[in-house]
Structure formats: C-alpha cells, structure tokens
Amino acid sequence: MELLIVILSALIGYLVGSISFARVGLRLAGIKRDISELEIFVEGADESARVEIFGANAASMILGAKAGIVIGIMDMLKAALPMIIFRLILYPTEQYYLIIWVSVLIGHNWPVYFGFRGGRGFSVIFGGLIIIDLIASIMLPIIGIPFGLFVAGNMLVGYISWVFFMPIWFFFRTSDLTFVICSFLILILFVLSTRPEVRTMAKYRREGKIEEYMQGLYASSPRWRGMKRMQDVVDKFGKKRYVIGFIVIFLIVILFMNIGLFPILYD
Question: What's the predicted TM-score (pTM) here?
C-alpha cells in the first residue's frame, strides 16, 4: 500500500461518511425540527431524555418507519459504493477498500459537518460487510438474533451481537489477519459510538426508572417497538428458552467449525 493513497482513502471515506442522511431526510421532508433536539418521553416520570445518537433510527422517530428504512439504505450505500469503486475499479489488488469502510464509519459516527454528533453506524457496517463478504452479511444476523433472544434472553443483545461476531467470523473465514484487525476496529468504533446510550440507560437504572425509560423508547421508535414484540414472543417460552439457547450455541459452534464450506464470493 502507498501512504498517499492510504491517506486519500481515509479522507474520502471520512468526508463521505460525514454526510448525515438522517438530517438530509428531515430537510427534504420539510421538517424544520433539528434532529439533535429529539427527546424521548420517560413514561410515568415528569421528564424526558435527549436522544444523543443521530442516525436512521432517530430519523424514523420523526419521519416514520418507511423513511427510516430508506435512510438506512442510503447509509449502507455511502459505505458500499466507494468500497466498490476502490475494490473493483481503482485498486482491485489492494485492500484500500477496508480503509474506506473504517473511515466512512468514523465519519458517520463523528461527522465533521455536524459537530461530530452522528449515529451508531449499523447500516454503514452492514453495507461494508456486504462488499467484503456477502455470506457474512447473511449469516451473522442469522446467528446474532437467536443468540440474543435465546442465549442472552435479550433482544438488544440479538440486535447488536452480529457486530461482535465479525472478528470471530473473519478469524475462521480467512487466513488474512488484516480482515480480523479491521473487523475488530469496526467493533471498537461501534462500541465507542454507543456510549451516550449506555450512559443514559445506566443513569435511569441507577434511579430505578429503567422500565419507564424503555417504555419511552418503545413508544418513540418503530425499531424499538419491533424489538419489543420479538422479546415478548421469546418471553412466552419461559424456561424452554434455555433448551433452545443450548441448541443455538451448539449450532453456532458447528457453523464456525465448518465455516470453510461456505464459498468465497469475492476473490
């Protein structure tokens, strides 16, 4: 790799990533409300919590689920398209597209155009993962959701655990340490981006108001309402969940032990 191209890749990725389609979507819809002023009403308490992560989910709280999906797709494309250009057209024999992936995520989570206040980067991570390994983009959510629901007993874990499985996937999937390091760096950036939400949840947990806060999330966000419905379904299994959880762990182990059976689509 050439240092100049590395720097240019990082700069291009960061500037593209800094485009906030959540904010663009609000403006195109004629909404004058600033997304950074979005608040969640804490059910049963005379207070509200400010939303501190500004991505597709935050936009869906104002524009609705369909608009949130469109914005999520746009966020996927802002990672996928420059990665395609670098991987397939400009530098097909080099791994500059990995630098694009990381830098787009940094830009999305800490955008220079908007006071470094961005999102978590779920769509950006997923969009880049499709370009790197299409099989991974299919299998990791399939692994993550049942792991969260039946092993951890928490849909939130299911929602995010596929990101945590990425370094493990690439460790078994490839013989290239670069992919493992890159996916681990992506994981670290994701964890750092969630700190505002974690702090807010920790605050309400200390105050004994976590249930009220969660009810506010369910009421305000289509995504959180969907997660709540899935959690309610799993809760009905009762202790049977542990049996299913054991089966899920067994299947995940088998999957990783036989990961080499999956074809390499991009080589």
Answer: 0.89
Q: Measured between alpha carbons, how far is residue 233 from residues 66, 181, 198, 203, 228 in Å?
A: 24, 37, 25, 28, 9
pLDDT band at residue 44, thresholds of 50, 70 and 90? low
DSSP letters, 146-185, are HIIIIII--HHHHHHHHHHHHHHHHHHH-S-HHHHHHHHH
Number of C-beta neighbours around residue 240 at 10 A:
11
Q: How far apart are CA 123 and CA 137, in angstroms?
A: 11
Taking the C-alpha atoms of residue 103 and residue 114, their distance in angstroms, rounded to an integer, is: 16
Give the number of residues written for the chain: 267
Task: Report helix angle 65-84 to 56-63, nearest 10.
Answer: 150
Average pLDDT of the residues in 42-71: 80
SS3 50: strand
List, in sequence order, every residue forming a beta bridge with 33; answer none if it has no partner.
Answer: none
- Please list the residues that pair with 50 across neighbouring strands: 39
How far is Cα 25 from Cα 100, in angstroms, rounded to an integer?
Answer: 24
Question: Structural domain boundaries of the chain?
Answer: 3-261
Give the closest residue to 38 by CA, choosing from 17, 14, 18, 68.
68
Q: pLDDT tens digit string along 207-241?
A: 787 888 888 777 777 777 888 888 888 888 888 88
